[in-house]
Amino acid sequence: MEMTDLANAVIAGDRRALARAITRVESARADHRAEAVDLVAQARAAGRQALRIGLSGTPGVGKSTFIEAFGMMLVAQGLRVAVLAVDPSSARSGGSILGDKTRMERLSRDPAAFIRPSPSQAQMGGVARRTREAVALCEAAGFDVVLVETVGVGQSETVVAEICDLFILLLAPAGGDELQGVKRGIMEMADLILVNKADGDLKPAAQRTRADYAGALHLLRRRPQDPEGFPKALCVSAIEDSGLTEAWADMQRLAGWRKANGHWQSRRAHQARHWFGEEVRQGLLSVLDREPAKGSMAALGARVEAGDLSPEAAATQMLALLGRA
Ligand SMILES: Nc1nc2c(ncn2[C@@H]2O[C@H](COP(=O)(O)OP(=O)(O)O)[C@@H](O)[C@H]2O)c(=O)[nH]1
Ligand SMILES: [Mg+2]
After folding, report:
1. How do residues 172-204 score in pLDDT, each as one tens digit?
2. C-alpha to C-alpha distances, 115 to 59, 110, 238, nearest whole angstrom
3. Distance of CA 313 to the CA centre of its chain
4. Which ligand approaches the C-alpha of residue 67 most closely?
5. Domains in the chain and their CATH numbers?
6. Which of 61, 65, 237 to mutate to test the pocket of ligand 1 (most atoms within 8 A of CB)?
7. Contact (CB, 8 A) for 225 and 263
8. pTM of the model
9. Relative to the alpha carbon of 96, which ligand is closest?
10. Which of these, 30, 37, 254, 273, has the minimum number of CB atoms within 10 Å of its CB?
């Protein structure tokens, strides 16, 4: 199928075409890469925008259960929802969402929803590109909300925050009054903290945890992209469907304010610039893995190891070679 036909089918909302298009952007083949760039450019030209929501949380906090409940709520409101996963560990676990499909049974069968598990490629640079392009394809396919799920393992949250309009941190009720070792950098990225499992015996602990995080958020430096009262912490229960409409109302309020005040557009513009730089960096690094640079690296590396050349002198020679290449 020609890329133009595939792009048109994606834009027409054909889910099988969307799945095929995402497979194309995930491909590592050089000829597929050129086609993928073309495909994504045609998809972006449709000019559609979804609300992109990043959702992060450690395994077991209830991300899959939350996405099922939250996604079903959005679908019931007539919205179309796409779910993508970023999981750098999926090479080992075999895909995060796939193993969780049972927890998203209703959503995965709903015609207004599209769920795509992580590809089994571990390299972070590749994951970032694939997710970014998959988001663009979902937008072109007319989805209103694109949820990007990631496990909280450090680097992946930053990638997701650089792709999404809103970044949500999902937490479970803490045992004591300790903040659950959430890194400051992650807290600073959060637009909304949702303390899940606020039901049954866990409810009081969830409320305490929410209050602790609300206090911690208050201590952070005020960000220009936030209206009064944001970022905020809320309690939700994915199994009891409670707090979900409130959380959605807050997401819409925040997104609406940012749109009205230019922050939405400038965030996307900054993100585009960021990814341009990253693509160039990745491209430069990949030069080292190909001939002739690969051979020169090996030869100079051997001389450094043998004590013939200092690391610095060898690096200078290598960089000079690259400059000439
Ligand atoms: N009590 C309670 N348990 C929940 C809730 N949401 C998820 N769980 C449970 O927490 C466990 C992990 O959920 P899962 O969605 O797989 O978490 P994930 O690893 O973050 O995707 C499962 O046993 C769920 O049933 C909730 O709102 N309340
Ligand atoms: Mg899960």
Report:
1. 998 655 566 677 888 889 999 999 999 999 999
2. 19, 10, 18
3. 40
4. 1
5. 1-47 (1.20.5), 48-261 (3.40.50.300), 288-324 (no CATH)
6. 65
7. yes
8. 0.90
9. 2
10. 30
